[in-house]
Amino acid sequence: MTSPRPRTSTxxxxxxGRRLTRWLDRHLPGxxxxxxxxxxxxxxxxxxxxxxxxxxxxxxxxCALRLAADPAxxxxxxxxxxxxxxxxxxxxxxxxxxxxxxxxWLEEDPEPLGAPFFVMARAEGRVPPDVMPYxxxxxxxxSATDAERALLEAxxxxxxxxxxxxxxxxxxxxxxxxxxxxxLRRHVDAQRAYYSWVVEGLAPSPLIESxxxxxxxxxxxxxxxxxLGWGDARIGNIVYDGFAPVAVLDWEMAACVPREVDxxxxxxxxxxxxxxTVGFGQPGLPGFxxxxxxxxxxxELTGHTPRDxxxxxxxxxxxxxxxxxxxxxxxxxxxxxxxxxxxDGLILHHATLAAMVRGSYW
Length: 362
Known about the structure:
Blueprint: H1 13-27, E1 32-37, E2 46-54, E3 62-68, H2 82-95, E4 103-107, E5 117-121, H3 140-143, H4 146-166, H5 183-199, H6 206-217, E6 226-229, E7 238-241, E8 244-248, E9 255-258, H7 259-279, H8 291-302, H9 309-333, H10 350-358
Antiparallel strand pairs: 1-2, 2-3, 3-5, 4-5, 6-9, 7-8
């Protein structure tokens, strides 16, 4: 937990700023970019620039720019479709009352900044930290009262409920991966293809492959209808004013999937941080985002009782394991870590996933 944060880019922020200024001059001649910053918590899969826009006709002052991953930085995902993310955010803003930042400009030409990007309004507020995780002592969410965390939990589950209920399911079908079968089948098949890409020419993970086998053996008898899934559905991707969500971020994993795919990810990603915290000798937040409470709250809000949640939480842990393996191999690429004889050791939560496969976790 104290090792250096993995390298996420080889880009020069100052050069990006100069190129951004030239690009903006085409949209708002004479506009000035001020306060350009690269957040210290920049993501592993794409980059964010924050800046202020000074111009009398500027649609907003505070802006955030999402830039597709640097190809030279051993990318986490094989494809970064910024137009897809831009479209999802625009549609969510139009079709639901889920708070998403206002999207402004989309640039699909890689020439201006070296990769496609889009600009959106910057959301002001606070976000539960990932490093160190909010389950550790010393941050605003850990220091909150039980009642305040309960409010944040309820409001965050409400985001999922409203997204799933309000967004027209038919309009989410453009997110379906190519292939045959149900939305869940296509989603899992796409994850298999992603895993194959991650381990191409490298050591495969016996644990990940056993988890895929477990999914096949425990496939839901009734998958349920597909909805628009947020994808990276976790509180670390929500900006809060007090304890109420004011902006839902990071839509690159949005999908047309059963509701439980998002719920499983929400529950599991909290468990990931909680288990790490306990492993390092702190109590964490054991009463927060409990699976039973999340399921109950979601059912109250939607009338849909979540089902097959052991399948979906294991699927979330499996998907996270593939991402973690890719990040670890990227660290090895940059000389930050050595690859052990057992590649499963590269997966930070391998004990959790193994327990899920054995049926001894919950």
